[in-house]
């Protein structure tokens, strides 16, 4: 496996402090390697978006990072903790090193400015020495990269379709050639045809430009197809992490199995679709022990009492994967 | 362009309707101006004089309403608004041009100032939500709900008096001739301070409040988060992204208040006996001076319409979504 580019260590993110606060992300350890697509899946409220906002320090109050480290390894130079950056250094770090494509394809662009202005103001902020003509040239180049005609530079966001807007956002995310691109449900607002088209394009661009992707979605079927590794989140914790194929073939955590069982396979024998009974846990009153145990079909004695640790399972391909479940107790915890 | 012409056509129609109403309404008010003049001169007018007054005022012929209406339009286009009854025999247009400058200077300047100051403070308060600026909110809410004239009365009560710097009323020192000289201008400014402050304090609060609330709303939009994530300087995010979008609803409010410069602050002018349009209307009402009333209403109507048209045009520039393609 190649070198890490982003290491999340014991990250805790909450909303509000003290007794009123809730912990949305709990003790998350996750490593993103150079050039890989890491999928992050889970139900609504599982903390996947909060994780993304937390590690880029974009959380709006009352959201607050309560602990942990986010170690970023720049292409050159020493690794540093993103959470410890000063405001000015953070501003420089943003977009240049880690760009984000957000959920709302429709609302991510400022309605009163032309596309060209919104593409070039990033360059103006990060590369002040660049001339106006080369800025425009660069913006045009990015549009071409995502398959949008250069004459759309003078368009306003409302003159573009949803798919085009999201492609503009992807082009914008890549304009400073960041090492990490975080995609927070980038295609939920688009129809399935457009989804595949845009994601296919992104994967192709990744091969060409060599950035890493954290791909957040509740749509596990998309992840299985487009990502290298998948991490499954439940109740603010990562419950399983494994290569995409391994998760698809043989998920270890009952929750991952439940997610996989809830969408139909395109090929292979027909099978009964099953959902996961119950609803996601309330962050204010997390169940004791493994937070999934009230809904788990395989829950047994230790589940309600003790929190399982994320670690290497004792099975055959245990080197490359980890799981937090009492069915697969670990002797080698992660993090 | 088509959109613009449509708007112009709409406003022309509205202007016609308003002017027509303007023609009829004073004629529905009971009493007639000659009777009012007779009372004013306490019966010292001869019968012949009264007859000639009727002729002068043009209310001698019992012509039908239609021919009066046509006549009214003809006069309007000639810029002739008739003779004022109260300031007889001064033409209405002259009375208006004397007073409108007072109003424009006082209310115009304060309206623009309060919009600029209020919007600026509102941007700041909205952007720094949760800091000390939130402490201003109860104060602004209080002042924006207080009527202008009440604040004016309080100001007169507290700040004016025989020894005070602030005069209690009037536009300038009595006896000074309006001119751009070192006697008139300082005196006019001194007289306008209290009414201006009154208007400013009560209207600036409204702008602060609405701009702050829009800023707060806009700040939670996705494109603001994107702007932060892009690592843009704070100023650029606050002004180019948040304030730029938050400003849109306020601009139409501003255009409306421009329209009400002429008509919106009667009570302040009355409280301060300020020789503007509002004070004039007050006197016209007392004297059954319907040519003057008509003239004032006409000016108010036109200024409201022009301000609205202005708002439409400015909106075209500010918000690309209102521009139709093609």
Automatic annotation (TrEMBL), chain A:
<dbReference type="Pfam" id="PF00005">
    <property type="entry name" value="ABC_tran"/>
</dbReference>
<dbReference type="InterPro" id="IPR027417">
    <property type="entry name" value="P-loop_NTPase"/>
</dbReference>
<dbReference type="GO" id="GO:0016887">
    <property type="term" value="F:ATP hydrolysis activity"/>
</dbReference>
<dbReference type="InterPro" id="IPR013563">
    <property type="entry name" value="Oligopep_ABC_C"/>
</dbReference>
<feature type="domain" description="ABC transporter">
    <location>
        <begin position="8"/>
        <end position="260"/>
    </location>
</feature>
<dbReference type="Pfam" id="PF08352">
    <property type="entry name" value="oligo_HPY"/>
</dbReference>
<protein>
    <submittedName>
        <fullName>Oligopeptide/dipeptide ABC transporter ATP-binding protein</fullName>
    </submittedName>
</protein>
<dbReference type="InterPro" id="IPR017871">
    <property type="entry name" value="ABC_transporter-like_CS"/>
</dbReference>
<comment type="similarity">
    <text>Belongs to the ABC transporter superfamily.</text>
</comment>
<dbReference type="GO" id="GO:0005524">
    <property type="term" value="F:ATP binding"/>
</dbReference>
<keyword id="KW-0067">ATP-binding</keyword>
<keyword id="KW-0813">Transport</keyword>
<dbReference type="GO" id="GO:0015833">
    <property type="term" value="P:peptide transport"/>
</dbReference>
<keyword id="KW-0547">Nucleotide-binding</keyword>
<dbReference type="InterPro" id="IPR003439">
    <property type="entry name" value="ABC_transporter-like_ATP-bd"/>
</dbReference>
<dbReference type="InterPro" id="IPR003593">
    <property type="entry name" value="AAA+_ATPase"/>
</dbReference>
TrEMBL record, chain B:
<feature type="transmembrane region" description="Helical">
    <location>
        <begin position="100"/>
        <end position="124"/>
    </location>
</feature>
<dbReference type="InterPro" id="IPR000515">
    <property type="entry name" value="MetI-like"/>
</dbReference>
<feature type="transmembrane region" description="Helical">
    <location>
        <begin position="136"/>
        <end position="159"/>
    </location>
</feature>
<keyword id="KW-0472">Membrane</keyword>
<feature type="transmembrane region" description="Helical">
    <location>
        <begin position="295"/>
        <end position="318"/>
    </location>
</feature>
<dbReference type="GO" id="GO:0055085">
    <property type="term" value="P:transmembrane transport"/>
</dbReference>
<keyword id="KW-0812">Transmembrane</keyword>
<dbReference type="InterPro" id="IPR035906">
    <property type="entry name" value="MetI-like_sf"/>
</dbReference>
<keyword id="KW-0813">Transport</keyword>
<feature type="transmembrane region" description="Helical">
    <location>
        <begin position="9"/>
        <end position="29"/>
    </location>
</feature>
<keyword id="KW-1133">Transmembrane helix</keyword>
<protein>
    <submittedName>
        <fullName>Peptide/nickel transport system permease protein</fullName>
    </submittedName>
</protein>
<feature type="transmembrane region" description="Helical">
    <location>
        <begin position="188"/>
        <end position="209"/>
    </location>
</feature>
<comment type="similarity">
    <text>Belongs to the binding-protein-dependent transport system permease family.</text>
</comment>
<dbReference type="Pfam" id="PF00528">
    <property type="entry name" value="BPD_transp_1"/>
</dbReference>
<feature type="transmembrane region" description="Helical">
    <location>
        <begin position="254"/>
        <end position="275"/>
    </location>
</feature>
<feature type="domain" description="ABC transmembrane type-1">
    <location>
        <begin position="100"/>
        <end position="311"/>
    </location>
</feature>
<dbReference type="GO" id="GO:0005886">
    <property type="term" value="C:plasma membrane"/>
</dbReference>
């Amino acid at each position: 496996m190649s070198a890490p580019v982003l290491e999340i260590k014991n990250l805790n993110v909450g909303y509000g402090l003290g007794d009123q606060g809730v912990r949305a992300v709990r003790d998350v350890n996750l490593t993103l390697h150079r050039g890989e697509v890491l999928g992050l899946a889970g139900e609504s409220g599982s903390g996947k978006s909060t994780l993304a906002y937390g590690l880029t320090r974009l959380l709006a109050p009352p959201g607050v990072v309560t602990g942990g480290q986010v170690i970023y390894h720049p292409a050159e130079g020493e690794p540093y903790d993103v959470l410890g950056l000063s405001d000015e250094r953070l501003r420089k770090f943003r977009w240049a090193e880690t760009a984000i494509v957000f959920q709302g394809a429709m609302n991510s662009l400022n309605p009163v400015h032309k596309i060209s202005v919104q593409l070039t103001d990033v360059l103006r902020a990060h590369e002040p020495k660049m001339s106006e003509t080369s800025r425009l040239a660069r913006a045009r180049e990015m549009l071409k990269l995502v398959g949008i005609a250069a004459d759309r530079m003078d368009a306003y966001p409302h003159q573009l379709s949803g798919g085009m807007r999201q492609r503009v956002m992807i082009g914008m995310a890549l304009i400073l050639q960041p090492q990490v691109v975080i995609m927070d449900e980038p295609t939920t607002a688009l129809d399935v045809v457009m989804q595949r088209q845009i994601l296919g394009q992104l994967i192709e661009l990744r091969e060409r430009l060599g950035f890493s992707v954290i791909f957040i979605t509740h749509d596990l079927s998309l992840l299985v197809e487009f990502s290298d590794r998948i991490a499954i989140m439940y109740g603010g914790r990562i419950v399983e992490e494994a290569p995409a194929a391994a998760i698809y073939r043989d998920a270890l955590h009952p929750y991952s199995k439940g997610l996989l069982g809830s969408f139909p396979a395109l090929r292979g024998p027909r099978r009964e679709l099953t959902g996961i009974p119950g609803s996601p846990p309330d962050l204010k009153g997390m169940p004791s022990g493994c937070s999934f145990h009230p809904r788990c079909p395989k829950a047994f004695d230790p589940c309600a009492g003790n929190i399982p640790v994320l670690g290497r399972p004792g099975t055959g391909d245990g080197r490359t994967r980890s799981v937090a479940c009492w069915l697969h107790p670990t002797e080698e915890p992660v993090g | 362009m088509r959109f613009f012409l449509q708007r112009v056509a709409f406003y022309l129609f509205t202007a016609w309707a308003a002017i027509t109403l303007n023609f009829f309404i004073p004629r529905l008010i009971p009493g007639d101006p000659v009777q009012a003049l007779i009372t004013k001169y306490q019966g010292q007018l001869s019968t012949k004089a009264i007859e000639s007054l009727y002729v002068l005022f043009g209310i001698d012929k019992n012509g039908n309403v239609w021919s009066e209406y046509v006549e009214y339009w003809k006069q309007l286009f000639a810029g002739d608004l008739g003779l004022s009854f109260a300031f007889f025999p001064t033409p209405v247009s002259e009375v208006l041009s004397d007073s409108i400058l007072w109003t424009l200077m006082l209310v115009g300047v304060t309206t623009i100032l309060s919009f600029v100051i209020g919007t600026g403070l509102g941007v700041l308060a909205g952007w720094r939500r949760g800091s000390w600026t939130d402490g201003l909110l109860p104060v602004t809410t209080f002042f924006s709900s207080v009527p202008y004239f009440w604040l004016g009365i309080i100001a007169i009560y507290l700040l004016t008096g025989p020894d005070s710097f602030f005069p209690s009323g009037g536009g300038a020192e009595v006896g000074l001739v309006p001119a751009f000289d070192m006697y008139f201008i300082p005196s006019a400014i001194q007289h306008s301070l209290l009414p201006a402050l009154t208007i400013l304090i009560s209207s600036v609060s409204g702008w602060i409040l609405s701009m702050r609330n829009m800023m707060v709303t806009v700040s939670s939009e996705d494109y603001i988060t994107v702007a932060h994530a892009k690592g843009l300087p704070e100023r650029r995010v606050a002004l180019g992204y948040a304030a730029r979008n938050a400003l849109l609803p306020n601009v139409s409010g501003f255009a409306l208040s421009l329209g009400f410069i002429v008509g919106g602050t009667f009570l302040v002018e009355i409280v301060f006996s300020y020789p503007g349009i509002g004070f004039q209307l007050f006197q016209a009402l007392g004297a059954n001076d319907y040519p003057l009333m008509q003239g004032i209403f006409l000016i108010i109507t036109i200024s409201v319409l022009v301000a609205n048209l202005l708002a439409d045009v400015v909106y075209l520039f500010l918000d690309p979504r209102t521009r139709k393609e093609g």
